[in-house]
Amino acid sequence: MDAEDPFGDGDVSQGTLIHLQKLAETAKEHQAWCELPFGQLAYNFATNGFGEKSVDSPSSAENLIVVYLRTGFADKAQQIAESLLETAEDKFGDKTHL
Fold first, then answer.
1. Distance spanning both ends of the chain, measured CA to CA
2. What local confidence, expressed as pLDDT, does residue 2 receive?
3. What does the DSSP assignment read for 38-87?
């Protein structure tokens, strides 16, 4: 059974991610604390739905890192950044030895 496309864009998963990111952006205009849950949802949706090596995951990770820093969660931001770096090194190789 196919899921209905509530946004009419043809790709339910991609459409959902885009709308979560738009909600996060809207919340950013008001306060970082409002943006935090949407950023977490977008990141989790991208990494679990598309995989950590997908095109959408790094962008969602970067956005969440910024929100974590703005809300005082430096430890969580560092964890996400380290995971993002590991994924990039796995995908593109370690560039520190150039």
1. 50
2. 42
3. HHHHHHHHHHHHH-TTSSHHHHHHHHHHHHHHHTT-HHHHHHHHHHHHHH
C-alpha closest to that of 17 among 53, 55, 70: 55
Residue 33 Cα to chain centre, angstroms: 16
Residue 92: other Cβ atoms inside 10 A: 8
Q: Quick check: 60 and 80 in contact, CB under 8 A?
A: no
Cα dihedral value 70, 74, 79, 82, nearest 10? 80
For residues 17-31, give the mean pLDDT: 79
Listed residue (94, 11, 95) closest to 56, CA to CA: 11
Q: Is residue 89 very low, low, confident or very high in pLDDT (cuts 50, 70, 90)?
A: confident
